[in-house]
Design goal:
The complex is a heterodimer. Chain A contains eleven helices and eleven strands. Chain A is an alpha+beta fold. Chain A has a single domain, classed as 2-Layer Sandwich (Ribosomal Protein S8, Chain: A, domain 1). The chains are: A alpha+beta, B alpha+beta.
């Protein structure tokens, strides 16, 4: 569940989406990023926070900013096309941010899919992707089915194993619809994400069974042990298997010097992360006129909505429906943030001469 | 316990091929179908093996399955194709679709093919394997007769949406991930019911829409839950977009199960091939996949686990044993095949 589904915490400050975006742009401009690219950082971070991925939103301004200040990530997009054919492109981001290089890669896949029907871009040597849904939606907004994957730093053992080896491999798939919002699946392959472990820890609650392992690989319900330990793949061996195949499509296929547990966390500032990404765009016109396709997606959504909910359930949603609704509200009314986060942002801004107000 | 007879891969093929031809499959389609049966028998998946010959016979006689299909794509670009399987056997549809995708990927780097009006697709892992044999990464997704409600709902609207991904290797058996989108597949559900085992949480609803741990009640209600809860539920919907919706014919509750012999199934497939040679040298790619597997293998196993495996490895274990010692085929199945040969006036091949 995203934070969007949770009540606004007591004492939260409502920050206008436009203000968050503007501040983000000013920060990255000040750190040497060209205006268009800083705009992409602002777009991504605001999108993530508005869609309920608070941990991938405003707090990342400080983390990504620190990556530039320590010199480990490049403020200038030096992304090179390494090789390409009619339906695919391999890019080397050379330590530029995924928020910039990833958009460039998805744009190339969208353009090629427009010509040839389906196309793939793969990026190596970039940073954590943030919200994968943002990239998949770029395709849906251009009338294509989009998919975006990255290989995350190691957070899970392989199934049956006991030491961290593979990421929880967040990925997203989006499809345009007609009357309805695009359908957007944006998920990770772990039963629970890090930010949830933190929340349980803060509330002093135990985790449910089956979502975490301790540092020795034994199941645990203690969130502190989980944070020092490992994640459990969703759906057991199925989620693990998928995580391996996503690694093939990202770290293996990209030719990156590093993959699996050699990919580092975004909060490690002494070496590049070496994240790889995979983007797929499919033009539905490979099969039928666009209008017919989106009508069919609408009927699929209607069919899901019409299902009788489980006893005590509210109603059936399709992927992305709730977060799109919350994002609309937040874009209009403001994004709730804890005062401590706003203070941290203001402090970081002050350090680099970018006032929060 | 049903006694079994060890049969070589060549013998499996020699039984399947003439029977499929006699049932009315054109030579090339019969060869594709027989090869897939051999592969599945070798990999310890007999449910997708020789027994399917009777299903093909019954479905084609009853009118649910068409054996004379023109496999020319309906639409094509240099990177994609749309194929109408005209109610033909799913294995032929999936194999031909992947063959086309591989051909496109050879030129364009990536090839994607969508199939409409297919019969049931059998084991999904075979289609990425077709790509793997051509040195490519393969992906295949299918929809199926509805078995799952959407997440939070009780009405069965989505198939268990099997999908498979494969990658070639150098020193290891190919990586083949093959999974349904439900927490349990039907085989596992039937086995739990037969052994009177309780289901773990998150596997099935009963006929009132409440979660149940009673395998018999779950089989009766046939409302499977997705793997990993809402995540798998979301995946099942996106897979329907890529199959039933994108293929432009039947979707969700319009898809029919294989038990209804006289009704066409209306299954859709999405298959894709990605040519790693478009990205890096093939040798380098294979070495990298091997390195991935080696790193997983060297992970210390938890207690009770003999060693850590990669997707497809258990089935590859069957394959090396069965290639050496033969596939165990139930004696009564051999008898039925022998009788069928007699019906068609075919000599027993061995």
């Amino acid at each position: 569940m995203s934070d969007a589904a949770r009540p606004t915490p007591e004492g939260a400050i409502l920050v206008a989406a436009s203000h968050l975006k503007d501040f983000t742009v000013r920060v990255f401009r000040a750190l040497g990023m060209p205006e268009d690219d800083a705009g992409l950082m602002g777009d991504h971070i605001t999108w993530a926070h508005a869609h309920g991925h608070a941990w991938l939103g405003a707090p990342k301004i400080i983390q990504y900013g620190t990556r530039i200040r320590t010199g480990v990530s490049s403020p200038v997009d030096r992304t090179d096309v390494v090789s390409e054919t009619g339906a695919f492109t391999l890019l080397d981001a050379r330590d530029a941010f995924s928020q910039v290089a990833g958009v460039r890669a998805m744009e190339l896949a969208i353009r090629k899919a427009g010509e040839i029907g389906a196309a793939v871009s793969v990026v190596r040597n970039t940073t954590s992707a943030g919200s994968l849904g943002y990239f998949a939606l770029l395709a849906a907004e251009r009338g294509m089915i989009g998919m975006a994957n990255n290989n995350a730093p190691a957070l899970m053992p392989p199934w049956g194993g006991t030491t961290k080896l593979i990421g929880n491999q967040a990925f997203a798939i989006a499809s345009p619809a007609g009357r309805h919002d695009p359908v957007l699946l944006d998920m990770a392959l772990s039963e629970m994400t890090l930010v949830r472990y933190h929340e349980y820890e803060e509330r002093g609650e135990q985790l449910p069974e089956g979502v975490a392992l301790d540092a020795t690989g034994r199941p645990t319900t203690d969130p502190t042990e989980a944070l020092a330990g490992m994640m459990v793949p969703m759906g057991g061996h199925r989620g693990y298997g998928l995580a391996v195949m996503w690694e093939v499509l990202t770290g293996v296929l990209s030719g990156s010097l590093r993959f699996l547990d050699e990919v580092t966390m975004p909060g490690v500032f002494d070496r590049p992360q070496a994240v790889s990404m995979f983007f797929l765009a499919i033009n539905p016109e490979m099969s039928m006129p666009y209008e017919e396709f989106v009508d069919r997606v609408d009927s699929l959504v209607d069919r899901m909505h019409s299902s009788q909910p489980v006893p005590g359930g509210e109603r059936v949603y399709v992927p992305g429906e709730r977060s799109a609704r919350v994002a609309r509200e937040r874009m209009r009314d403001g994004i709730p943030m804890p005062p401590s986060l706003v203070a941290d942002l203001a402090d970081f801004g002050a350090e680099i001469g970018v006032p929060w107000e | 316990m049903n006694p079994t007879v060890r049969v070589s891969a060549e013998q499996v093929r020699s039984m399947a091929l003439p029977l499929l031809r006699a049932i009315g499959m054109p030579p090339e389609d019969a060869a594709i179908t027989a090869d897939a049966m051999v592969w599945n028998e070798l990999r310890g998946a007999p449910g997708h093996g020789l027994g399917r010959i009777f299903q093909i016979l019954e479905r084609s006689r009853a009118g649910g399955l068409n054996l004379a299909v023109d496999w020319t794509p309906l639409r094509e670009t240099s990177g994609t194709a749309l194929l109408d399987a005209c109610d033909g056997w799913g294995v032929v549809a999936g194999t031909r679709a992947m063959g086309i995708a591989v051909g496109k990927a050879r030129d364009a780097g990536v090839g994607a093919v969508v199939v409409r009006n297919s019969d049931v697709t059998s084991a999904m892992g075979y289609y990425p394997y077709v790509a793997v044999m051509a040195g490519m990464v393969g992906l295949a997704i299918t929809n199926s007769v509805p078995l799952m409600p959407p997440w939070g709902g009780t009405e069965v609207l989505l198939g268990n949406q099997a999908f498979a991904i494969g990658a070639p290797t150098r020193d290891h058996p190919p990586l083949i991930f093959d999974s349904s989108s439900s927490a349990y597949n039907m085989g596992k559900m039937r086995s739990a019911a037969a052994h009177g085992e309780k289901l773990p949480p998150g596997v099935a609803l009963d006929d009132t829409g409440e979660e149940t741990d009673d395998a018999a009640a779950a089989l009766e209600a046939l409302r499977l839950l997705p793997m990993g809860g809402h995540r798998g539920g979301g995946l099942a919907i996106m897979w329907e977009v890529l199959t039933g919706i994108l293929a432009g014919r039947r979707s969700t509750t319009e898809v029919v199960g294989m038990q209804e012999l006289d009704r066409t199934a209306g299954v859709s497939l999405y298959v894709q091939a990605v040519d790693p040679k478009a990205f890096l040298s093939y040798e380098e790619f294979l070495a990298r996949v091997d390195r991935l597997i080696d790193q997983i293998h060297s992970n210390p196993p938890r207690s009770g686990v003999d060693r850590v495996r990669v997707p497809g490895e258990s089935k590859a274990g069957f394959e090396s044993e069965y290639r050496a010692r033969g596939v165990p085929v139930p004696a009564d199945l051999l008898e039925r095949l022998r009788a069928l040969c007699g019906d068609f006036g075919l000599a027993w091949p061995w």
